[in-house]
Amino acid sequence: MKKLICLFFVAMVALGAKAYDFEGRLKALYHDLPAEFGRGLSITEVTYDGENVVYNYIIDEGLIMFEAIESQSGMFHDVFVAENISAKDPTVIEVRDACIAEGKGIKHHFAGSKSGKTFDVVLTHDELK
Length: 129
Description:
The protein has a single domain (about 20-129), classed as GMP Synthetase, Chain A, domain 3 (2-Layer Sandwich). It is built from six helices and five strands, in the order ααβββαααββα. The protein has helices at about 1-15, 20-30, 65-70, 75-85, 90-100, 125-129, and strands spanning about 35-40, 40-50, 50-60, 105-110, 120-125. The radius of gyration is 18 Å and the shape is globular.
């Protein structure tokens, strides 16, 4: 009987637990965007698509060739994984921990300012752990 009561209590707590409010928290955390991420690269907004937190970047193709950034997507992936795992910034830690807890990933979406070309660097839930 004790086990049944414990299981019932755990189920009630789990059902009552509120999911992380990705959209609301991202708006609050990243209210100061857009911002330059580097010469010719700007981060415009951070959104949530239901499966991933999405960092949206614009590549200024007047300054940088789209292909130059796209060709480095593997390097970007490795850097983004390392930055999330070893993060010291409270905002990065909060977003990473929420993604881990909710089974979500992080996507970095890059778009060319003139060509409209895009590519994504995706960090899966498992890579964030």
